[in-house]
Design a protein that fits this description.
mainly alpha; Cytochrome Bc1 Complex, Chain D, domain 2; about 0% strand; binds heme C
């Protein structure tokens, strides 16, 4: 573990009685740092190449106010359920054709589950 955020997550887990999968979260933090951080902040209102993904699970797509989404994303009518995130993170261009997330996708289902659980966790 190299990041302070991941350290916080792990410390929290040690004292937490929540029914969380520690291994998933740890893997999720790593996926975020390896594959998402370049374009996505987890701070509310802070956009990079992509919009902030703070609180993304359960939110309607394309709703970060000051971010310039693709038309495809604006018209997608997606609500980011875990299922929808699964599909999008597996194959962004298939899930939202014409979207502008230039990311090859996560083929490993454990990585997808990990990042989704992590995104939920850090937004609570
Ligand atoms: C190379 C930059 C880049 C990378 C890497 C990237 N994204 Fe994105 N992401 C974007 C862009 C750009 C958009 C906006 C897409 C659009 O408007 O079509 C986006 C959109 C999204 C959305 C929809 C946001 C919303 O408000 O509706 C989610 C969820 C998302 N990305 C998650 C992720 C996750 C999780 C990862 C890591 C596994 C990741 N992205 C990696 C650039 C990236």
């Amino acid at each position: 573990m190299t990041t302070p955020l991941a350290t916080v997550v792990l410390s929290f887990l040690m004292i937490s009685s929540f029914n969380l999968h520690a291994a998933d979260l740890k893997a999720g933090a790593k996926v975020y740092n390896d594959a998402c951080i370049e374009c996505h902040s987890l701070k509310e209102g802070k956009n990079r190449k992509g919009p902030s993904i703070y609180g993304i699970v359960g939110r309607k797509a394309a709703t970060v106010a000051d971010y310039d989404y693709s038309e495809a994303m604006k018209k997608s009518n997606i609500v980011w359920s875990e299922q929808k995130l699964e599909e999008y993170l597996l194959a962004p261009e298939k899930s939202v054709p014409g979207g502008k997330m230039k990311f090859e996708g996560l083929s490993d289902p454990e990585k997808r589950q990990g990042i989704i659980q992590y995104l939920k966790f850090v937004s609570e």
